[in-house]
Design a protein that fits this description.
The complex is a heterodimer of chains A (about 170) and B (about 150). With about 170 residues, chain A is of the alpha/beta class. Chain A has 5 helices and 7 strands. In chain A, strands 2-1-5-4-3-6-7 form a 7-stranded mixed β-sheet. In chain A, strand 6 (about 140) and strand 7 form a beta hairpin. Helices cover about 60% and strands about 0% of the residues of chain B. Chain B has about 150 residues and is an all-alpha fold. Chain B has 7 helices and no strands. The chains are: A alpha/beta (about 170), B mainly alpha (about 150).
Chain lengths: ~170, ~150
């Protein structure tokens, strides 16, 4: 056994194994959004009914922005959580932002699953791209000063949503 | 119907690029220059719903939306670096297909060259030394083994 080669080999392989081991502990699809702690990107969108909503007008209120689509199964699972959340936090402005979808399908979906807050249509996914949306559902909590405080990737759960809204 | 669609598009404003990026680095582009700029920038931009595909190479709806965004910015004269930065503010550095050569990222660029240099050095040293001489046969070696060794030298 040649100690020189052993030590040399370990010097090369050791850090590599350490990097891989650290990587295995993480979900490769989970990235901390660079927007958390930053001002929420501004937008003006129309609701399904054609009413204009400008994020700037919502300053002073907590905002929940939920990106979803009718073709998204997890969105269907989380929908009751959001409906209950909107009922429990009447001072918070809840908005659904529909992503890559059609108004007809959205209306039918909302009739079937219930609706308690306005639905915004994001044509061309412009707002989704500005918020760094990877897929649906994703939910952003914006504090009254307009700063993004939390981002949920995947369906929100009631306990976390309530705790985060109350902490804000 | 078309008018309604146009109206709704007009209002779907995202964030203002000028506030984020400042003035465009180049002149507004059109035609072939615009197309090639969009393609070159799209090649460096990760399609965020794909597995390791660039925006230029992916047929997905999200990639299309990203291409439209790149085109809108490029048409105003924003250069590749400005456009990449625009996406980076919402998606983080992950959205760049090539990590920026700075900080720890430099390892990605430097390590392969380093390993190549070390490997080349080892090979060069090995060649210079020639093949190692066979070990001198021990006095008490089996005579048959010694004969084999001599005949195969």
């Amino acid at each position: 056994m040649n100690w020189k080669y052993l030590i040399g080999g370990l010097a090369v392989v050791g850090p590599l194994v350490a990097v891989l081991a650290a990587g295995f502990g993480q979900d490769p699809r989970h990235f901390e959004s660079p927007l958390v702690g930053k001002p929420a990107p501004d937008f003006a969108l129309r609701t399904l009914d054609g009413e204009e909503v400008d994020l700037a007008d919502l300053k002073g209120r907590k905002v929940v922005l939920n990106f979803w689509a009718t073709w998204c199964v997890p969105c269907q699972q989380e929908h009751p959580v959001l409906l209950a959340g909107a009922a429990r936090h009447p001072d918070t402005a809840f908005y659904g932002v529909v992503y890559q979808d059609e108004p007809g399908k959205i209306r039918a979906w909302l009739e079937r699953h219930g609706s308690a807050y306005p639905t915004l249509v994001d044509e061309g996914s412009k707002v989704a791209l500005a918020y760094g949306v990877y897929g649906v559902p994703e939910t952003y909590l914006i504090d009254p000063s307009g700063v993004i405080r939390h981002k949920f990737v995947g369906p929100v759960d009631a306990a976390t949503l309530n705790a985060q809204l109350e902490a804000m | 119907m078309i008018l309604a669609a146009l109206l709704s598009l007009a209002i779907a404003a995202g964030p203002d690029p000028a506030a984020l990026l400042g003035p465009p680095a180049g002149p507004p582009l059109t035609g072939e220059a615009l197309r090639s700029h969009v393609y070159r920038t799209g090649k460096l931009l990760r399609c965020v719903v794909c597995q390791g595909l660039s925006v230029a190479d992916s047929p997905s709806e999200t990639a299309q939306a990203m291409r439209d965004e790149v085109e809108a910015l490029a048409a105003q004269g924003y250069d590749t670096e400005q456009i990449l930065f625009y996406f980076e503010t919402s998606y983080g550095e992950f959205v760049r297909l090539e990590p920026k050569p700075e900080g720890w990222n430099l390892l990605v660029w430097a390590l392969p060259l380093g390993f190549l240099a070390v490997g080349a050095g080892l090979v060069a040293r090995g060649v210079r030394k020639g093949t190692p001489a066979a070990p001198a046969p021990a006095e008490d070696e089996d005579p048959y083994l010694r004969r084999v060794r001599e005949e195969t030298r």
